[in-house]
Amino acid sequence: MNFDPLYQPYPSRRLPAYARKGMVATSQPLAAQAGLDILKAGGNAIDAAVATAAALTVLEPAFNGIGGDAFALVWTNGELHGLNASGPAPASLSIDALKERGIEEMPKYGVVPITVPGAPSAWAELSRRFGRLPFEQTLAPAVRYAEEGYPVPASLAYFWNRAYRIFGSRLSGEVHAEWFRTFAPNGHAPKAGEMWSSPHHAASLREIGRTDAESFYRGELAAKIADHLSEYGGFLTSEDLAVYRPEWVKPVSARYRDYEVWEMPPNGQGMIALMALNILDGFAAGEKDSVPTLHRQLEAMKLAFADGEAYIADSKHMRMSVEGLLSREYAEERRKLISDEAALPGPGTPPSDGTVYLAAADGEGNMVSFIQSNYMGFGSGIVVPGTGIALQNRGHSFSMDPRHDNALAPGKRSYHTIIPGFLTRGGEAVGPFGVMGGFMQPQGHVQLVMNTIDFDLNPQAALDSPRWMWENGKSVQVEPDFPIHLAQALMRKGHEIKVATDKGVFGRGQIIWRDPASGVLCGGTETRTDGSIAAW
């Protein structure tokens, strides 16, 4: 594990950060500072993660919100725990129910694709089980920023304005009016440096903190959500909210070299990263930024996505087992399909048995990998009046094909894009990592893991390395600073390489590694956005 700030094969915009007592890494400086404040107030890494996550709903509303989902990997007392706080489809939402309304494809926006939000339950559950400070205290920084306001940073202003233009052209009517009143109060998206506040958002966060999130699921906030959606023909009801609970799950892993890479089990797409790494583990490490290495990465990624898109769903509805998909024997079969030319793989037959990310660590060895999202930026375009709560549109991920594992069904969780990652070695924690950004996420995980383990890059250098992103078929996007000679060589192997004009599609990541001997923390944060590390 390389902590050397000077070892990197290309220019970097930033050096890694070091600390001993605590560290919070995320995409927004004020949110990272909120988590650090909680650490200094006597909280642990779990308290800091909750504080940061809640603050991000205010400080990066273009990527997440109170009405979204969340997942967490928590290392404490020598053990890794997984929390799935993704919500299911409402009990009345089904393929037949949509077809009765003349809906043949799940819409992106509006009241129909809204599923039960899980994020508030994640905060409360993490605080209850592992936190040290009162839950209400951990949410206080988020309440303060929502109430007093803050100057919008440059990259957030860009994405906020882009979302405003999209919503302005596609969303209309009173059902969406509250979104525009909340997020474009002056008739436009906030500009860089412009103050934005949301008193309703502050009141909702205060209510969630005061009631340990009970109000959101079985109280006043739940009633406001259900009543508003009922007025416009939505499917989500107070009963759907009342029965919801987040689920503690056993994380899944793949061995890569002499490390263990951990992800959440399905319904998340973290399995895709593990399947790709299983395939790549059968090859020698190779050289970074070499054509053979990049070609194998792309081909392994395509094979893993083919299986993931065919088989990953709510674990209760999967035909293929997690164990079968992650078996070394199956990885060997898939590895044999990689040749010297770009291919168009389909799924195999295994044995039948917009988003925010944060990493937090404290001086006691506790570490958290946490991710939450409303999906597609602001989500459904629905904001519940008087609450500031923007609701997610995760239902859009369901298939309308009843034969598909991920087919829409009442009470079922959809295939989920947001995935936290964690790395261990010999049963000891190395640390949390993640890359947000839709279907880029497992691809980012694979690239970060290989940059760290195979190419010995420090956390910041691992993040700064130019990225690629497989789209579909043989189409691959690369960043503008991706070496042109490598892009040309990959094209000669049949890959259809496109140089992206928008670096936002390549995700935004964070890493914190811990030295097992000294306890020193080494962190990297994304230079593709307003990434920041707050350290103590």
From TrEMBL:
Cross-referenced Pfam families: G_glu_transpept
Protein name stated in the entry: Gamma-glutamyltransferase
Native species: Saccharibacillus endophyticus
